[in-house]
From TrEMBL:
PANTHER family: MALIC ENZYME-RELATED, NAD-DEPENDENT MALIC ENZYME, MITOCHONDRIAL. The lineage of its organism: Eukaryota, Fungi, Dikarya, Ascomycota, Pezizomycotina. Gene3D superfamilies: 1.20.1370.30, Malic enzyme, N-terminal domain (3.40.50.10380). It comes from Purpureocillium lilacinum. Residues 1-10, 296-305 have a biased composition (Polar residues). This is Malic enzyme N-terminal domain-containing protein. Keywords: NAD.
Length: 317
């Protein structure tokens, strides 16, 4: 993060003085940003695309990297996005378009006036929110049934990874891999799956990461959870789906699912690491196989009852 005194590294927010401003990752005012140039444009949480005003283009070294000499409004960007979305020939293409948008410009994807941290203020308050205003029409595209199609085609449509991928063959690195996602106070909500029983379409292996991603999108849209405080996770334990095992493009472990004691130890390792690294995060088990899901959640609930509660969060001055 930039120093407080460096005015040239502050990106404008949407106002200040709200009762949520003291919370972690509150974005009710200017944000310190250490990025500039192409690195800034490649960061989906800071990138505004054509909406960067002239003074920010100058401060962040964006002249020559963006068309035009002034900012377009968020409303103009949203209108362009709606037209692009409508031009896609089918729902899977629309789903892929929205995923690409989220990877480039998260604010435009959620189409918000500000990104709000945990709490339940009206996160999506603009009247022209792309997803919020069209949630009835777009719900089936960003979630079931179209997300099921995207999951089935994950390895064929893959462009950029999103989330944390943990392998049963790399159990000793689970904690180190999880630790890359921030400090103890940075994560509030973890959705984890092993991809065995996805949306009624069965074993989708590593493609199950998209169900974790989709659940967290809904948490932001419908509950106001800050998207940068969420962590989607997939536990890659192999797959029993013959189509995936025979697919050279499949990105996950091309081996039969690990079960029994080795599977249990892997899940235990993940939960122990998640609790240690992000002690206040809610861990949501999603679309596990029926037997494994019940056993895993029951075992972890029992362990949780036998452990002391996590320390209170740090207060901010």
């Amino acid at each position: 993060m930039a120093s407080d005194g460096d005015a040239n590294t502050r990106s404008s927010g949407s106002g200040s003085g709200t009762r949520f401003g003291h919370l972690p990752l509150s974005t009710t005012g200017p944000l310190d940003c250490a990025l500039s140039g192409t690195a800034l444009l490649n960061d989906p949480f800071f990138n505004k695309g054509s909406a960067f005003p002239l003074e920010e283009r100058r401060a962040f070294g964006l002249h020559g990297l963006l068309p035009g000499s002034g900012a377009q409004t968020l409303e103009t960007q949203a209108r362009r996005a709606r037209e692009q979305y409508a031009s896609r020939p089918d729902d899977l293409a629309k789903n892929t378009f929205l995923t690409s948008m989220k990877e480039q410009n998260a604010v435009l994807y959620y189409k918000v006036s500000r990104l709000v941290p945990v709490s339940l203020p009206p996160l999506l308050s603009r009247q022209d929110c792309l997803l919020q205003d069209n949630i009835k029409d777009m719900f089936s595209v960003v979630y079931t049934p179209t997300e099921g199609d995207a999951i089935q085609n994950y390895s064929r449509l893959f462009r950029r990874p999103e989330g944390c991928f943990l392998s049963v063959n790399d159990k000793e690195r689970v904690r180190a891999n999880l630790a890359q996602w921030g400090n103890p106070e940075d994560i509030d909500y973890i959705v984890v799956t092993d991809g065995e029983e996805i949306l009624g379409i069965g074993d989708q292996g590593v493609g199950g990461i998209l169900i974790s991603v989709a659940k967290l999108v809904l948490a932001t849209l419908c509950a106001g959870v800050h998207p940068n405080r969420c962590l989607p996770v997939v536990l890659d334990c192999g797959t029993d789906n013959p189509a995936l095992l025979d697919d050279d493009l499949y990105l996950g472990l091309r081996e039969r699912r690990v079960r029994g004691a080795r599977y249990d130890a892997f899940v235990d390792e993940f939960v122990a690491a998640a609790r240690a690294l992000y002690p206040r995060a809610y861990i949501h088990f999603e679309d596990f196989g029926l037997g494994n899901g019940e056993q895993a959640t029951s075992a972890q609930q029992q362990r949780a009852l036998n452990q002391p509660p996590p320390p209170p969060p740090k207060t901010q001055n």
